[in-house]
Design a protein that fits this description.
Blueprint: E1 2-15, E2 26-41, E3 46-63, H1 70-81, E4 94-111, E5 118-133, E6 139-148, E7 152-161, E8 166-174, H2 182-188
Parallel strand pairs: 3-4
Antiparallel strand pairs: 1-2, 2-3, 4-5, 5-6, 6-7, 7-8
Amino acid sequence: IIEKTSFVGTSIEFNDTTIATLPENRLFSIGALRITGLSMNPNTHIFSVDQLFSRSLQANSWMASDGVLNVQRLVNELKTLSSEEPQTASKPWTVKVADIDIDEYLVNYWDFSLERDAHYSLGPMRLAMKGLETTMGQKAGLDFSAKLGENSGISVKGEFQLVPLVADAEIVIQGIDLRQFQPYIDAQSWVD
C-alpha cells in the first residue's frame, strides 16, 4: 500500500533520432511536473492522486514515409522487451484524480507519408479538471482550450463522465482554416 506520496520533477526528456530530417528529434519534454497525494491500494484496487500539476510540455509525433507512427514503433519495441506472460484478469482498478492543472502544452505532428509533407501544431493547450474518476456515473469538471496553428482554436467547458462516456459541455471551434489540410485533400483528389 502506498499512501500520500508525492513526486516532483523537472526537465524530463526523451529523444528519437531515427529520422534525421525532423526539425525536432525530441519525443517529449516536460518543464515541470508535480504529483501530490499519490495513493495506491492493491487490496481495494484504488489508485488516487490529489493533484497533477504540469507546465511546459512539448511532444512531437510523426508518421514516417512508410505510414508508421513513431509512437507505434516505440510501443512495439517496448512490447518486445517485455517477456512476461499476460496476467489473468482481476478486479478492475478505480482511478481517482481530484485536481488536474496542465498548462503551456504543445504537440507537434509531421506527416511524411504524403506527397507534400504536412505539419500541425496544437498548442498552447490548457486543461483543468476536477473530480476525475473511473467510477460508474462519476462526473468531472472540464475546462480545455488549445490553439491549432496561429489563428484557429478549440475550447471545451462543462462536465463529463468516463463510465459510461457522457458529456455535457460547450464546445467552441474558431477560425479553422481548411487550407492547412490541403496535403490530405491532394492525396484524395485529382484537382490541381
